[in-house]
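Case study B.
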Amino acid sequence: MRYLDDINPEEFSEWFDTVIKEAEIYDYGRYPVKGMGVWMPYGFALRKNIIELIRKEHDSKGHEEILLPLLIPEDLLIKEEEHIRGFRDEVYWVTHGGLDELDVKLALRPTSETSISLMESYWLNSYKQLPKKFYQIVSIFRYETKATRAMIRLREVSTFKEAHTAHSTFEDADRQVREAIEIYSTIFDQLGIPYVISKRPDFDKFAGALYTIAFDTVMPDGKVLQVGTVHHLGQNFSKSLDVKVLQENGENDYVWQTSYGLSDRVIASTISIHGDKRGLILPYIIAPIKVVIIPIYFNDEEKKGVIEYSEEIRNELENCGIRTVIDTRTELTPGKKFYDWELRGVPIRLEIGKREISSKTVVIVTRDELKKKSIAREKICESVRKEGEEIDKRLRERAKKKMEEKISKVEKLELTMEYGERVRGIIEVPWCGSEDCALKIQERTGIRVLGSPIEKPEWIKGKTCPVCGRNAVTSLRLAKTY
Amino acid sequence: MRYLDDINPEEFSEWFDTVIKEAEIYDYGRYPVKGMGVWMPYGFALRKNIIELIRKEHDSKGHEEILLPLLIPEDLLIKEEEHIRGFRDEVYWVTHGGLDELDVKLALRPTSETSISLMESYWLNSYKQLPKKFYQIVSIFRYETKATRAMIRLREVSTFKEAHTAHSTFEDADRQVREAIEIYSTIFDQLGIPYVISKRPDFDKFAGALYTIAFDTVMPDGKVLQVGTVHHLGQNFSKSLDVKVLQENGENDYVWQTSYGLSDRVIASTISIHGDKRGLILPYIIAPIKVVIIPIYFNDEEKKGVIEYSEEIRNELENCGIRTVIDTRTELTPGKKFYDWELRGVPIRLEIGKREISSKTVVIVTRDELKKKSIAREKICESVRKEGEEIDKRLRERAKKKMEEKISKVEKLELTMEYGERVRGIIEVPWCGSEDCALKIQERTGIRVLGSPIEKPEWIKGKTCPVCGRNAVTSLRLAKTY
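Model:
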């Protein structure tokens, strides 16, 4: 199914680069360090609203925000063996302060499991303090050797929300993993980003974790983007950093931990998944400007009344807490203004002319459908809010439907070969559950294994693993990924 | 003049370290990199409220928030000669990514004049875009060789608000300096932080600026803390980074710039200036918890009613947007709870017992005065807000009065010798205006020159410069500083 103005999969990459530049979201490729860009005012405001939404969901579940130092000394970062093995090749090192060489090299944080565990060893004493849930929103750094990409594969990931939790038992950490999945689902649902949740194969879990659960979405070009991960860390870090508490049974024991992260990719996918050929379509809930008013007049006499009426409406909307802008530029035609604000994805446009004044109405146009409708002036706040909610609902449903169309169930590996030409998106195959077969499937198809659903799917009943022929116990998802 | 419970000047340093630790503001000295600490949940919430206050003042004057990369390549940082000369000894350098040595060394931003100017060279084309006001709130890094101090002298300054503006003319940049002074005055007034505003001597201005204006406050130990600076940058950076726009006269010319900054020191001074021997006294306007309710009961029967009534009041306050906590801990006596929340500086305490239920009242106690008063339950939100405003007014006035007492006017340099034993604070001497005499005053007294007031003071009329004997044209402020 294709919608009017849908982005062509082949053109997505160019579309993305153009739209983030022209809508003044993120200046990328001009700052003279590869993989690092600049959040421009409009993009910063969008990012801020998305961060606030993320904050709210974490705060409401008892997470406490903190701020840890950026620099992690080498001897701290290497405490957990698996962890440093996973990150060693992509850590930036500070070696000098002024003209002095430092005694201990300092890493730019690639993530903060080691430093939060160190602080927990001071802060936590008793099971009575548990569960304890911290988070911070910071920049992290990865010396990516692959091609970088604005907001998607960066060397400075400038929007990284990392949560770190501590628990008395394995089971409580497991429960926390489920809570994190719930929190992330709520966040993505509000942004209208569809997703599948997969348990990553062991060979692709977070360095230092017992297991990793990931949220993946499908971008308009059919490639899959990992947008969030949740890790059960077991006692790996608590043992390495000596985070012990007095347990209920009177003994001192190591805590159980989880961590989970979101990044700039949440913003990148919000932009990509809803956009169309005209530019951005921002969900009402996080749009920095919710309403733009375009005054329409044909002479100076009309102008005065139209501007006055527009200002009244703007003030009324602002008083209702609805961020509204009037485009009073005189050098542009209304048509040119429409084009401008459509590019920026403002969800609601109000057109106001002579006729609206006399009929006490305004013309309302939603960014996703671009249909005109007249609404009563006296109910302006209520109507705008209702339209906003409906836009978000439509965006969410449309995105979900599109993604479902891009998930194909396949029983024979040969069929995955069509992938890339015709299918795109995610392929699901029956799977026996062995890591060995998963690796073979990845090798034979050349397509990356995302992992298996967290609940056993119905459709694999009676199906067999395409590698070993044993009965399938679950399915395995495959995709070309970012 | 001394107030009950005032911190002794000699004990201030210890008081500060103890209170930020025990009130769980900022964990300092345990994280294994010197000069870098951790914002704990309560401290983070305080920091967030202060940041929001700072944001609001900048946004309301048309500043746009952005986010620039942390890393500045060496060849960019050294473009402006004076600037790099000022910062060369205190820049941290990233030299390696993974196991590779980088082609170009990357500095951890010590400040962002060079990178914003580079971006302005892309973003700004015409005088019609001017004035343009950007700001960001980020971590900056300085390899301090002096003794570090929590929140006051850090190697990671984790709360740095830096504003950067561009203008068509010298005069408009001058006007912007005045606007910045106004914005900072409003911020400090709201926080009840008293200040003097001084033009720094040329030998102490920001590296790369034409001139620097600074806000200084006096800490409880009598030492002066610089809490904000405003710089007129002239065309120094715009010429080095080639930031040209089409001017109104049709010619391309370099823009004029200003920059101004605030740091963690705003939080440190809010804590220090209002605190007393019992701990923090947070201004109501930025307190993370505005009200704590202590339920008081003597048996289980009383407990039920008291807790219910307390919850009703809490809900009512929360519905009014007033962040309120009930301390329901059973293992602590009310007295111990009082002590706990006084340490944390919660501005308003409500005590609720059997008597309050029957008389439909609550007992209200403000943190600064600790006097009990009974108020009607039905007007709870209104009364709390009013008390909050009055606390802030009292804190502001008390702090201002204390600071005024610590400014001494002196005509002969010999008298400054008493400083440190008796006087403490700021000394003002008449001054002829010559940099040479300022340097001599600094050398002879061994006390740092802060600079001169931005408006010529009345009292210097007929007075002479204590070095050269010429007529004074203004005064010069001296102090022991952090």
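Chain B has a mean pLDDT of 95. The remaining cases will be described in the next quarterly update.
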